[in-house]
């Protein structure tokens, strides 16, 4: 099939590359011309394991191409994915200006051939109908065609449109986005018509109707637009709540002398609970959970419903960062004038994404308290981090960050941090305190090196 992907961010690029890999002809479009040029040269805008190789192979096979021309994409593709960003506004509601602009422009370029317009951007419940309206508006707004006789632009009559809107939320995690796209737990399709549903079944046939007998079909959930949109929010809100829940349990564990790791392991053996997303720590960050939980609260409010549980989910997450500061204050007393080393800036390992990263929030609080903060991350650069926190010092060596530091705080569980020689860590660190904000170090080993171990909920 011929597929257009509008917006080559995380979701768009990964989706486009994976669809090309299974045999579709994919046109990835972005209005950032410089980005498109870099993609054509094989330079990825994000760090994502396996993506660069996949894109290169797809480009070499002729199934993936990049363009900054929306007209080209709408002209050639029978399925058009909208995969642009929907960041949070200060009040928590999502900023839909990019979706609005794309939907209108798609409408301006549509002709009378049938198209399926797929919303993959995370948009509030009810946005499917709104996108339809914008596409129709776009088609009605005059398109200045090539200048006619005498240089006067010719206004074309709007074509009779044949299109359906589909909601097809993504559930991919940064750091394993390619793997997740090839191995999803389910594919969700909210469709307005049977025709659109059939197009989507064909598009995803590699997953939902595999030809190889050894591949199990991925469950396909076909539903209405609003339910599909809600599934995405409900899934992320549930996962975020699960983490906030275990963090709350961790905070009680600390006070009663229990170990949250053992508690999480044991409750996770209950199949109804499950063992994933029960790691207590400094809380969740990233581009999805904070934005989506806030957006759901905002949707509730819009419809006169107060989301008290989700507000608590957000509040627990917010205070979880402050607990790191409290732990340092308890151990070091006065923080003003101290040097604190931070290991890990990304919101989680195997990504260079620092959006809503707990590490940067902790660094900001420490700087505000008069500390000097020296950080290390295996892939986040000083330039990247300093855009958000200008006074943060970033070193390319994890061990160098320890020199002159009164305490070490581990904020991202990069595997290499658990592998350092703790005797060396102990020798370099001026102070004795190690706050393990991700419970990823071995407590006994840290203590064995003569350091004070402070974990989360243990
Ligand atoms: C998430 C969802 O998992 C994905 O399905 C959705 O499409 C996008 O949002 P992502 O943001 O990439 O993916 O990261 P994820 O691995 O889910 O982690 C989110 C945050 O939760 C990270 O900050 C992580 O450190 C934290 N986390 C995760 C915990 O604190 N404890 C856990 O047990 C799991």
Automatic annotation (TrEMBL):
Reaction equations catalysed: UDP-alpha-D-glucose + 2 NAD(+) + H2O = UDP-alpha-D-glucuronate + 2 NADH + 3 H(+)
Binding-site list for substrate: 171-174, 232, 277-281, 285, 348
Catalytic residues in the record: 288
UniProt cross-references to SUPFAM superfamilies, sorted A to Z: 6-phosphogluconate dehydrogenase C-terminal domain-like, NAD(P)-binding Rossmann-fold domains, UDP-glucose/GDP-mannose dehydrogenase C-terminal domain
Single GO MF annotation: UDP-glucose 6-dehydrogenase activity
Residues given in the record as NAD(+) binding sites: 30, 35, 86, 122, 174, 291, 355
UniProt-listed GO biological process terms: polysaccharide biosynthetic process; UDP-glucuronate biosynthetic process
Domain of life of the organism encoding this protein: Bacteria
PROSITE patterns named among the record's database cross-references: PROKAR_LIPOPROTEIN (PS51257)
InterPro entries reported in the protein's UniProt record: 6-PGluconate_DH-like_C_sf, NAD(P)-bd_dom_sf, UDP-Glc/GDP-Man, UDP-Glc/GDP-Man_DH_C, UDP-Glc/GDP-Man_DH_C_sf, UDP-Glc/GDP-Man_DH_dimer, UDP-Glc/GDP-Man_DH_N, UDPglc_DH_bac
Domain UDP-glucose/GDP-mannose dehydrogenase C-terminal, residue spans: 341-443
Keyword NAD: yes
Pathway: Nucleotide-sugar biosynthesis; UDP-alpha-D-glucuronate biosynthesis; UDP-alpha-D-glucuronate from UDP-alpha-D-glucose: step 1/1
E.C. numbers: 1.1.1.22
Keyword NAD: yes
PANTHER family: UDP-GLUCOSE 6-DEHYDROGENASE TUAD
Described purpose of this protein according to its UniProt entry: Catalyzes the conversion of UDP-glucose into UDP-glucuronate, one of the precursors of teichuronic acid.
Family: Belongs to the UDP-glucose/GDP-mannose dehydrogenase family.
Cited NCBIfam families: NDP-sugDHase
Name of the protein in question: UDP-glucose 6-dehydrogenase
Phylogenetic placement of the source organism: Bacteria, Bacillati, Cyanobacteriota, Cyanophyceae, Gloeobacterales
